[in-house]
Amino acid sequence: MKKILKNNATLIALIAIGVLLTFLTKGSFFTSRNLTNVVRQVTIVGVIAVGMTMVILLGGIDLSVGSIVGLSAITVTLLMEKGVSVWLAIILTILLTGVLIGVWNGFLVAKYKIPAFIITLGMMTIARGLALTFSKGGSVPVKNNLFPRIGGAYISPGTSAIIIAIVLGIVIYSTFSGMKKKVKYGIELEKTKEMMSLVAKIIGVLFMFWVFVTYKGIPSPVAIFTVIALLGVFLLRNTKMGRNIYATGGNEEAARLSGINIFKVNMFVFTIVSALSSVSGIILASRLNGASPNLGNMFELDAIASVVIGGTSLNGGSGTITGTIIGAFIIGILNNGMSLLGVPSFYQLIVKGAIIIIAVWFDVVSKNKKVA
User: Fold this and answer.
1) What's the mean pLDDT in 38-42?
2) Could you give the CA distance from residue 255 to residue 231 in angstroms, rounded to a whole number?
3) Helices (H), 8-143
4) pTM for this entry
């Protein structure tokens, strides 16, 4: 039980914070409407945090993600204003802002060994300046009727119920399939741990059913975020690139000597995080039905906080996207809860900063104990 509690400390903290906020807000926090809004808000930073997890797994950091959000929001809205179709504008925005900036950051980091902190700090300023230049310092409205649906539409409750039922079936099947594979290959099977994990997953899926189906259904940004998160989890767990990311972050020199292409790994990771930041900016512009050059300000703080709170080590080589998602929800419900309680925004920044420090301190203490 002690081991289970330790391995699921972040999830337990998330549940505890939710229960506490429910009492403090006299139940207004724990409603399907409010929780749907929390999930929808989390997706904006959550999409970035998936890519940030990979960067931090390498032992790096990307401070430019918030500015890329703002630049992407301005770019996609300006392209549509010039008459470009919605989907072409989205593709061009991801390529011209996300992919291009990511390739540039990754190239300088991988080729010249310049610290990622310095490169992305410079790009943070450049991207924000470009957003201000392109928009001439003002907001850009959206007149297209389709674009707002990307970030503001809902999947109908009936369809949402079917999707969640399918997810429940997949969860149960994959759990028992994994247990059979462990038995087949002679891997020690901890039945109690596996069953407790399955019960927790089932409760989580049923909770999703209550939140979404009893309100308006699954918000479209949540569906996009879910797909991105699942692809990220699959990439890190089941692909050669995922193993290379962990190996490079754990010991870059050993990874190089074992034949891993460090240059390719860095290029891939920095391109992914920038592309996902661009996607986040597009979703945010769609949700707001317009764009401002200041969008995405301080999003890098929330993304990094989500990753660190989720248990990914800043030293690299250790962490999961699942943990990051939990970390993103902790940040999200704290923001929502403090807003419901009327806590001023500057106090919220203090709280989030303190949480990051505590999470890093916990990570360092845990590693020191293992070494000892």
Assistant:
1) 93
2) 24
3) 9-24, 32-57, 65-81, 86-93, 100-112, 116-135
4) 0.93
Instruction: Give the position of tokens 């769609």.
Output: 286
First to last CA, the chain: 23
Q: What is the per-residue pLDDT across 196-229, written as a single tens digit (0 to 9) for each? A: 878 888 998 899 999 999 999 999 999 999 999 9
DSSP track, 239-263: SHHHHHHHHHHH-HHHHHHTT--HH
> 239-274, pLDDT tens digit by residue?
999 999 999 999 999 999 999 999 999 999 999 999
Domain residues of the chain, as ranges? 32-153+219-296+314-320
pLDDT tens digits, 86-127: 999 999 999 999 999 999 999 999 999 999 999 999 999 999
Structure tokens at 365: 């203490």
Under 8 Å between Cβ of 279 and 49: no
Under a CB-based contact definition with an 8 Å cutoff, are residues 337 and 17 in contact? Answer: yes
- Contact between 362 and 348 under an 8 Å Cβ cutoff? The reply is no
Give the length of the chain.
Answer: 372
Q: Measured between alpha carbons, how far is 169 from 61 in angstroms, rounded to an integer?
A: 37
- Residue 232, number of CB atoms within 10 A of its CB: 24
Report d(CA 134, CA 191) in Å as an integer: 58
Distance CA 184, CA 194 (A): 16
Cα–Cα dist 277/99, whole Å:
10
Q: What share of the chain is helix, strand, coil (3-state, %, to 5)?
A: 80, 0, 20
Distances (CA, A) of 336 to 34, 39, 284, 331: 9, 10, 17, 9
Residue 282 neighbours by CB distance under 10 Å: 28
pLDDT of residue 1: 62
Residue 280 has pLDDT above 80, yes or no: yes
Q: Return the structure tokens found at 154.
A: 């809902």
Q: Distance between CA 116 and CA 104 in Å, rounded?
A: 11
